[in-house]
Amino acid sequence: MCDPDSGPAAISDNVLKEETNEKKADGETETLSKRQRKRLLRHQQWEEQRDLRKQKRKERKQKRRLERQAQAEDGAEWIGKKRFRREAEPSSLKLVVDCSFDNLMVLKDVKKLHKQIQRCYAENRRAAHPVQFYLTSHGGQLKQNMDEINKGWVNWKDVHITAEHFHEVLKKEELVYLTSDSPNVLQELDEAKAYVIGGLVDHNHHKGISFERAKELGIAHAQLPLGSFVKMNSRKVLAVNHVFEIILAYLEKRDWQEAFFTVLPQRKGATPVGQEGKLDQSEEEDENGEQDSDGDLESNEKVLEKRCDAQEQTDAKRREQAARLDKSEDASKEQTVA
């Protein structure tokens, strides 16, 4: 907190004293100039309001203290100046990001995976039911990128980061590899299981690789029930953080459709299953509207012209007002000189 005695008013007071002392030394009168009187007045006001400022600071502190107490009584946890978080109920479910595909990615995609992992960590920290987060096969380009860009990862809490493979860390019978190529569709989440997400950003260059990995290891595999609840314009392959966040949302809401539409980005063109007819009807209306596109373009051009004219008129008025102000200032200066 700044010392009031070192503020602008104190500096101006020192300047005032120096100027007064200089005048005394030169034998001049001690009559204060208009500028000096203003400085002195500001300094006096600053001193008079010192107690008021102190009282306001106390009131703000008391207000923040009462807010924290009220949140604590409601069962909330204070985690910063701006945000409160409800007390979390951790889930026993394990979510694993398998980072063993490092050699299949270029550096650009490794950086994308790093950002997705950061998002997973952040979302899990503030989730209503945080999962047991595992980051396995951690090394190579990914670890190097994290060391260079985000050295704070070594201090991450509530996450298990290891260079070992996930099937070496966890029991084989509790593993379920999540892959969109699996014929098995999840209906419920078993919180005694460890669900594995393939940590791969490959733009579909290595299609089916996570499914093949699960079969090679002889572990269970499944896909999220995306097709049962969502119709998408794009491919069904989701980013690592999207899968992670959907599972967190399901643990909180216990509703797959609500979980999907809470997380999926709009650019995926996701619509609820059963509403395709409405979507097709809207597309037909769009196609019919294309016939009037020329008329729409003409009307848009007219709107733009009107806006330009209005802007020019506004600029002209501002210039006129500025000119009048200049004239009035010149006239007042002439009167003062006279």
Automatic annotation (TrEMBL):
It catalyses: guanosine(9) in tRNA + S-adenosyl-L-methionine = N(1)-methylguanosine(9) in tRNA + S-adenosyl-L-homocysteine + H(+). Residues 81-271 form the SAM-dependent MTase TRM10-type domain. GO terms for molecular function: tRNA (guanosine(9)-N1)-methyltransferase activity; tRNA binding. Residues 282-298 have a biased composition (Acidic residues). Residues 1-72, 270-338 are annotated as: Disordered. CDD domains: Trm10euk_A. The active site is at 202 (proton acceptor). Keywords: Methyltransferase, S-adenosyl-L-methionine, Transferase. One of its GO terms (cellular component) is nucleoplasm. The keyword Transferase applies. One of its GO terms (biological process) is tRNA N1-guanine methylation. Residues 15-33, 299-338 have a biased composition (Basic and acidic residues). Residues 53-66 have a biased composition (Basic residues). The keyword Oxidoreductase does not apply. Its EC number is 2.1.1.221. S-adenosyl-L-methionine-dependent guanine N(1)-methyltransferase that catalyzes the formation of N(1)-methylguanine at position 9 (m1G9) in tRNAs. Probably not able to catalyze formation of N(1)-methyladenine at position 9 (m1A9) in tRNAs. This is tRNA methyltransferase 10 homolog A. The gene is trmt10a.
